[in-house]
Amino acid sequence: MYVQASRIQRHLEYLQSRGVDTDPLHRQLELDREILMDPAGIMDFQTYRAVLDFALRQTNEPGYGLDFGSRPQIGGTISMMGASCKNLRESFIEGSKLFRVQGDYSNMEFLDDNYYPKLVYTQLDSWVLESPQTARLDVDIMFSFLNTILKVNSNNTIKPYKVHFAFDRPDYRLRYQDLFGIMPEFEMSGNEMIFRREDLNIPMKAFNPETFSLLNAYLSSRLDQLAHGETVSDKVKRILHASFKYQFPDIETVAGKLSLSARTLQRKLSEEKTSFKDLLQETLFGIASQLLKQDHLSVTEISDILGYSDIGNFSRSFKKYTGLSPVDYRAGFTPGDHGSSS
User: Fold this and answer.
1) Where along the chain do its domains lie?
2) What pLDDT digit, counting tens, does each position of 238-269 carry?
3) How many whole angstroms separate alpha carbon 254 and alpha carbon 280?
């Protein structure tokens, strides 16, 4: 999974403006400065997660995402294209179509309801389970930024009708009320910004058909390049990560999402020297490994989350795949360490 490098660079610049030394992070992640400064540069999603985690630890501020997202300049090319649209509705429609230019780790969908249209922001289920703090930070950034765009284009006259967050109600919830002009609802089924239909008809201040056409063509081309650079295996793993909710989808479901038959999908994976079963196990035990690093989840809870009928089956499967029991893995053993200690 990938993320637009400029998204990482904006975080680094913002942290530096707040007096945070980012050189240790550059060294730890071996960040390539040329890629960071390249408008078309992409980086691994795990790097983005590590940067968000670093930001939370260095600032020690849960509301970091609300502050970062309130800066209009973080939007990049998609933001400029959206600003050149006729109105907010068109901006949301076109922006959500091309959202994956920014990365394939999340998705934005605009549902144009007759009465209350809404933007729905979804993240990888595995991310929310493995690193809920950084996933929450990402949602804060996105919704704070969308709210900023709303304010800028309405001279602060429009606010969302409702805002829903899937995560728990935070202690600093009054900051959300100050930001959105309403108190969001927490612990909902998804992350949504809901609007009154008439509010989305206001014209964009920077409406320019020529600019929109140029930027839309550029972003569409970038999205096509990214899609063609992704292997079938990459696409399958992305779907598995995104679709996981206590049970992984079967091969027929995944193939359907790729507009393929199950047989064709297996053949394409075979050409890439892998199989659906291999990718499923890689994803499953990758998620298990990340969850085992979290102290607040017991091994039994992790077994339940991953859909195992009992902890014994999970422990045997995990040890067969990794060479370690879940308990030993959590304790920080590596296969070499485990062997030398026995």
Assistant:
1) 2-218, 232-341
2) 788 766 666 788 899 888 878 889 999 999 99
3) 11
CB 302 within 8 A of CB 288: yes
CB 119 within 8 A of CB 146: yes
**Each residue of 133-155: pLDDT tens digit?**
999 999 999 999 888 888 887 77
SS3 165: coil
Nearest CA among 169, 149, 123 for reference residue 69: 149
Contact 143, 185 (CB under 8 A): no
Six-digit token string for 320: 């067969």
Give, for 147, the enclosing helix (H) or strand (E).
Answer: helix 132-152
What is the distance between the alpha carbons of residues 121 and 147, in angstroms, rounded to a whole number? 14
pLDDT in tens, 73-89: 656 666 777 778 888 88
- What is the DSSP-derived secondary structure letter of residue 306? T
The CA distances from residue 140 to 84, 148, 192, in Å, are 25, 12, 12
- What is the pLDDT averaged over residues 30-40? 82
Class of 232-341 in CATH: mainly alpha
What is the largest distance, in Å, between two alpha-carbon atoms of the chain?
70
Beta-carbon contacts of 180 under 8 Å, excluding residues fewer than 6 positions away, are 147, 159, 160, 163
Q: How far is residue 136's CA from residue 164's CA, in Å, rounded to a whole number?
A: 13
In angstroms, the CA 142 to CA 117 distance is 17
Work out the percent of the chain whose per-residue pLDDT is above 70: 92
> Residue 223, Cβ neighbours under 10 Å: how many?
15
pTM above 0.85, yes or no: no
Q: Tell me which fold the domain 2-218 belongs to.
A: H-NOX domain (3.90.1520)
The percentage of residues in the chain with a pLDDT greater than 90, rounded to a whole number, is 30
Cα–Cα dist 176/55, whole Å = 19
Measured distance CA(79)–CA(54) in Å, rounded: 26
Q: What is the pLDDT of residues 161-213, one digit of tens each?
A: 999 999 999 988 899 999 999 999 999 999 999 999 988 888 877 778 887 78
Q: How many residues does the chain have?
A: 342
